[in-house]
Design a protein that fits this description.
Helix content is 52%, strand content 9%. The radius of gyration is 37 Å and the shape is globular.
């Protein structure tokens, strides 16, 4: 066979020669797409043409020609047309093969003599079997050539006699070898748990490439981790010198055969009494050698296994992002427990699929579970309390009772019978991995950790991520999931030939690499940086070659910007890593950075992720530690002001993250916050009469001075006034919130960060964040949903509780079902194909007519998009990136972003979105058919709510003959109107609108004021009357809260016009408006989930 690569200039010549001579051709290093010159051959082979035109020549195809292609990229996604002309074979090693591989590695590392002896015995067995097969072939050949009486053939008779004697000897030796092989396997089984754990870790790690190609690892890398972990174990666990110097089995066997006769004679000369006595002593010594310390050996083996897991996990997890790090630890725990049977498939299915887990069990198992639940009382189909037990969670509780009747069969009935006790338990402060259950319930006793997770997902789903993290630390030992590795330590550990891949989303690695160089080399002058782009490949190659000789640290950034240069870099990296003849300066080090790109280079790199700290506690510790030397020489007032500002800065940052707002530029600016914090405070503290006000308005601190969003600026200023005031510099303790205290001693006798950070809780509360509890819970629920979605996408842990559809095509079938269901729910396109009667021609009517035209165009777009997606789902067309994203979103129950961009913003799942779309179309169709403005508008049904309010102002401008800029809208909440049926006609003045929903509060229809709504997410606001008025309207209320009106409940992004609200609605309140500002109470013109 001939071997070539697509980049080789001889590839086409070898292809032509192989085509004509019928020689197999192996094309290596095929990435993503099949090369064009191979596509010509594949298409011709499919058409079964014996000759075709190739490179302007007629080439004949030999019937024995075969083409093989291989790719070094794991999980490569080829184009659909490729699969029609080639047969794709996945050579991924299964779990059983990995088990044997790592067992061989473990034994070879711990006891190389034992592994060598086993190899020799296997060779002897194989050699003996081949000898028997050769003799059998020879006898059969002689028998086939013989004619007449076989007794007349002396050669045959002699061969048969020799065959009988020889095979008896060979079989005897093979029997001895087989027995010895069994003994050796029993000895090797001592390390099988280590090997099994290594195979499980390899399976889990390889699946992370499905999440991000940058996580791809090689089998050699994991093997090296296993060897290093075993070699780093305690010295007393390693084999002794006597054990490692014992002779091999082959030499011992030859010496045994040579001395067999002598030992037989000597034993026959001794009396029988001595022989029996020696046998008894031997048996006693063997028994005494195997019995003592058995429990110690088992505990030592368990400790060794735990140490191995922790060491490998700590090494690998530093190359994963924080949320993925927790998922890795959880998968390691679950995979290990499932392997030994401590976690059942039904438990795993319940955790992953929730109420849909019933699809994975057979009808008989389901019937048995229902029978067990019926013994405790048939629970109602509807939830007993929609607030504490939403319907989806209640359905999940019923599924748990059916699938796991031994633990949860009585749970639904117990909740129904003791509802008040369960409500009281759910109101208590949540604790990770401790489900909120009544103290006297059957589930208050110690439960299996996985059963606790199931209860938490059913009762407190927001606590699932924190509980998973606690479970990982409990089962894997003292594993730190949040702290990040030191780059300098990683450099010293991996060596100068090992490249380091820095995964730093949104962060510049320059400062981090320079700091590591200062620590390792003593200077940062020998560090070279290069950002790749068009035409930078040759420059990067030259830089690498010079750095190899001169011993410089080289940082090559943005590999994804130079995809064409990656094969050259791959050759250089392979040469640096594996070519020992290549001279590499001992001070050389290569660093790489890249966005997500599929390249084999990542498999050869040590990965290191650097992220900003998570949580107020971690971030505050970093900030105070960075300025601690300067604070020691500062005054008490400045030190406490810096500490308070640091707390405020961390709180503001966490509030933004909990709303889903991320700004890489702002994050980069925040990381420089600590460097300028002390300088800014010292400059303005003594010189300003109102230092706090001066600090909050400074653009250099990235507070209100740099905020384009007026609502956000108002919130920051209010938050600043609550957390920072003159009491901070007083003599006593300053309490920010429960558990968050600035001690009086800070700034006076010490500036130790642990004095402030130590007593703080690990989980941020809604009080310190100054947000509504619902907002914090929503963020935690999003984290839990993302974790479940991530676990479902992991390939090695697919649920196999009961046989269902084949794995191949199951996802496609699900996709086709979803597409068919969505297509059937879409409204028809021709709803506006009717004659519109003559009606009003005002500004509002013109706006409504434009809305109908836009709705009709959007429905047409949806139909065309669905037809395209259905065809691609059936494999009738190639999928582009946009279609792939749309199909993935629909399969996950989300509205595709492509639809949102062409329609209107939404935060609803696709099922609720379809219901709301039908209502929107029906509302516009009714108006279009009547031609008269509705007496009450539903602002949630408009594509442009801001355009509707502008149309109202424009209509008033035409009536009063004034500029539209002089017309303002006065807001009056009509508490008695909550439904269009409550109206008898159109209002005499202004317009009435419904469709607004309060988030984080409710409207009291009796006092006509805002009021608190503990635990309530959304509440419908009665009708709002928008009354146009020229000039500003007088405000007679003591407190008025200007509530922002947004399109959806999802907080907008950090930049752009979408950040600004549609309008500010004045709502009466009996408490200062600062209370609602801090809790971020807002109005949304989209209904909650339907």
């Amino acid at each position: 066979a001939q071997i070539t690569k697509p980049s080789s200039w001889k590839a086409r010549e070898k292809l032509v020669l192989c085509l004509q001579d019928g020689c197999p051709l192996v094309v290596e290093d095929v990435r993503g797409e099949v090369p064009a010159f191979l596509n010509v051959v594949l298409l011709r082979r499919r058409e079964e043409e014996k000759a075709f035109l190739f490179m302007d020549k007629s080439v004949s195809v030999h019937q024995d020609f075969q083409l093989f292609m291989s790719t070094p990229i794991a999980h490569t996604q080829f184009q659909p047309a490729t699969y029609t002309v080639v047969s794709v074979v996945n050579f991924t090693v299964p779990l059983q093969g990995l088990d044997e591989h790592f067992l061989s590695v473990a034994v070879r590392t711990q006891d190389p003599v034992l592994e060598q002896e086993r190899r020799e015995v296997l060779q002897n067995v194989t050699k003996g079997q081949r000898s028997v097969d050769a003799w059998s072939t020879k006898i059969l050949s002689l028998l086939s050539e013989s004619e007449g009486n076989i007794l007349d053939f002396s050669d045959l008779i002699e061969s048969l006699c020799e065959f009988r004697v020889t095979t008896e000897q060979i079989q005897q030796r093979m029997k001895e070898d087989t027995e010895r092989l069994a003994e050796l396997e029993e000895l090797r089984n001592r390390w099988r748990p280590l090997a099994r754990r290594g195979a499980l870790l390899c399976t889990v790690l390889s699946s992370f490439a499905d999440i991000d190609p940058m996580y791809d690892v090689s089998l050699d890398y994991i093997t090296e981790l296993l060897q290093n972990a075993i070699q780093g174990d305690a010295g007393d666990r390693r084999p002794s010198a006597a054990a490692s110097s014992r002779p091999s089995y082959a030499s011992a066997r030859s010496s045994e055969e040579s001395s067999m006769h002598e030992s037989h004679e000597s034993s026959s000369e001794r009396p029988p009494e001595e022989q029996s006595g020696e046998a008894e002593v031997s048996a006693h010594s063997e028994g005494s050698a195997s019995s003592p310390g058995l429990e110690d050996e088992e505990s030592a083996a368990a400790e060794r296994l735990q140490h191995l897991t922790r060491q490998i996990f700590a090494t690998v997890s530093r190359g994963l992002r924080r949320d993925h790090r927790c998922v890795l630890g959880f998968l390691v725990c679950v995979h290990s427990e499932r392997d030994v049977g401590r976690v059942a498939e039904a438990q795993w299915s319940c955790l992953l699929k929730g109420p849909r887990a019933l699809e994975d069990i057979s009808e008989s198992v389901r019937a048995l579970g229902i029978a067990e639940v019926a013994k405790t009382g048939v629970p109602p189909a509807e939830t007993p309390d929609t607030f504490y037990f939403p319907q989806t969670l209640w359905d999940f509780i019923g599924v748990m009772a059916i699938m796991l009747p031994g633990v949860f069969a009585a749970l639904p009935a117990h909740i129904q019978q003791h509802l008040d006790a369960w409500k009281w338990a759910l109101q208590e402060e949540p604790v990770p991995l401790e489900p909120a259950v009544p103290p006297n319930s059957p589930w208050a006793k110690p439960l299996d950790p996985f059963d606790k997770l199931l209860l938490i997902r059913a009762l407190q789903p927001a606590m699932l991520p924190a509980s998973v993290g606690r479970m990982v630390q409990t089962m894997l030992g003292d594993v730190v999931l949040t702290e990040q590795a030191n780059l300098a330590e990683v450099v010293q550990e991996c060596g100068h030939r090992q490249p380091i891949l820095l995964l730093q989303p949104g962060l510049d690695p320059v400062a981090q690499v320079r700091a590591a160089a200062e620590e390792v080399l003593g200077t940062s002058e020998h560090v070279e940086f290069l950002c790749l782009g068009d035409g930078q490949g040759q420059r990067a190659t030259k830089l690498l070659q010079n750095s190899l000789t001169l011993g410089r640290w080289t940082v090559i950034q943005n590999l994804h910007e130079a995809v064409d240069w990656l094969p050259t870099l791959e050759q250089l990296v392979n040469a640096i890593c594996s070519n020992t003849k290549l001279k590499v300066h001992p001070k050389f080090q290569l660093f790489l950075t890249s966005a997500s790109v599929a390249t084999p280079i990542v498999r050869s790199c040590v990965k290191l992720v650097h992220e900003e700290p998570a949580g107020i506690r971690s971030h505050l510790r970093d900030l105070l530690t960075s300025v601690q030397p300067e604070l020691e020489s500062s005054s008490r007032s400045v030190a406490r002001a810096v500490a308070a500002l640091s707390v405020f800065h961390c709180v503001r940052r966490e509030r933004g993250l909990n709303r889903g707002v991320s700004d890489p530029a702002g994050t980069q600016r925040q990381f420089g916050f600590a460097c300028q914090l002390l300088r800014v405070v010292e400059e303005h503290w003594e010189s300003s009469v109102q230092p706090w006000r001066a600090l909050v308005e400074l653009p250099g601190l990235a507070y209100t001075g740099e905020l384009e969003d007026l609502v956000a600026a108002r919130g920051v200023a209010t938050l600043f006034a609550r957390f920072l005031n003159d009491e901070v510099t007083s003599d006593g303790d300053y309490v920010f919130a429960k558990g968050y205290i600035l001690p009086a001693a800070f700034g006076s006798s010490t500036v130790d960060p642990d004095l402030v950070v130590g007593p703080m809780p690990t989980m941020d509360s809604a009080e310190i964040l100054a947000v509504h509890s619902y907002n914090l819970q929503t963020a935690q629920l999003d984290q839990a949903a993302n974790m479940i979605r991530l676990l479902l996408s992991m390939r090695p842990l697919q649920v196999t509780v009961a046989p269902a559809r084949p794995a191949v095509g199951a996802r496609t079938q699900d996709l086709l079902e979803v597409l068919a269901r969505v297509a059937g729910e879409l409204p028809p396109v021709d709803v506006f194909q009717i004659t519109r009667p003559t009606g009003q021609d005002g500004a509002v009517s013109a706006f409504l007519l434009a809305e109908c035209n836009r709705c009709e165009a959007f429905l047409t777009f949806l139909r065309e998009s669905m037809e395209k997606l259905q065809a691609q789902g059936q494999g009738l067309g190639a999928r582009d990136a946009e279609s792939a994203e749309s199909l993935a979103s629909l399969l996950a129950g989300k509205v595709p972003q492509h639809w949102i961009d062409n329609g209107y913003p939404t935060a609803l799942p696709v099922a609720s979105w379809l219901v709301h779309l039908k209502r929107r179309v029906e509302f516009l169709r009714v108006w279009y058919s009547k031609g008269v403005d509705p007496p009450c508008h539903d602002i949630s049904h408009y594509f442009s709510p801001l355009g509707f309010l502008l149309a109202v102002r424009r209509a008033a401008s035409r009536r009063t003959a004034v500029s539209v800029d002089e017309v303002t809208l006065v807001h009056q909440v009509e508490s008695l109107i909550s439904d269009p049926a409550d109206l008898l006609g159109s209002p005499a003045e202004g317009v009435l609108t419904l469709g607004c929903f309060l988030q984080g509060a409710r409207w009291d229809i009796h006092t006509h004021r805002l009021e608190f709504a503990p635990g309530e997410a959304f509440s419908a606001l009665p009708a709002i009357r928008f009354v146009p008025m020229v000039g500003a309207a007088p405000n007679t209320n003591i407190y008025t809260y200007s509530c922002p009106l947004y399109r959806t409940c999802r907080r907008p992004g950090p930049r752009g016009a979408a950040r600004q609200p549609v309008s500010m609605i004045d709502l009466n309140t009996v408490v200062p408006p600062e209370v609602w500002i801090l809790e971020e109470v807002s109005l949304v013109c989209e209904p909650p989930e339907i």
